[in-house]
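Proteins fold. Shown next:

***
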Amino acid sequence: MIRAYGMAFAQLGSPEFRAVLWRALALSAGVFVALAVLVWWLFDGLGLFTWGWLNWIVEAFGWGAFLVVTWIFFPAVVSSVIGILLDDVVAAVERRHYPADPPGRPPAFWRSLAVGFNFALVMAMLNIVVLPLYLVLMFVPPLNFFVFYGLNGYLLGREYFELVALRQLDDQRARQVRKANAWRLFVVGAAAAFLFTIPFVNLLMPLVAAAAMVHIFKTLSA
């Protein structure tokens, strides 16, 4: 696992990785620009009070809240957009490190989009379900970390493995390999979950996790 993550971080500077990152940043910025235009339109056309100074205060508060939300959620949006483009990352790792192996089959765009959306939905729902447990264990530091990294480690390990494995195997065979190596994939996913909680590093983690999983999959296949 350490070798796989080391090789993944080392490839971050490659043109293919940079292209995916810039595309994700541009698309994410476009989303927030569109939201900013919508907020401006709402404030410009909606006068809540007859006193202009009171409307000005409301608008200032609204823009401040929008900037805070943008700051908090921008990394998450970038990660989600990168998730749609990760097949390019996997293909780049295969070409650079495993040129002698048969190239993977790129999935259809709509299938990748559906898989990514389904994963995000399941991840959100499971974290909401265990939210009461998070709150109960908030004051018990060792246990709350175990719950968070345990759940998200399982989910991330499964998601990134399927992203890579389904390029080489059919659904049934990929499921068999995943179940046979469940513990290894859980450890890899838990490491990814930890790195996702580090500011600025989390922006690059979808690229790193996908690249590392290629090396993990090749090792398991061998």
In short: The chain has a mean pLDDT of 77. Residues 89 and 207 are 7 Å apart (CA to CA).
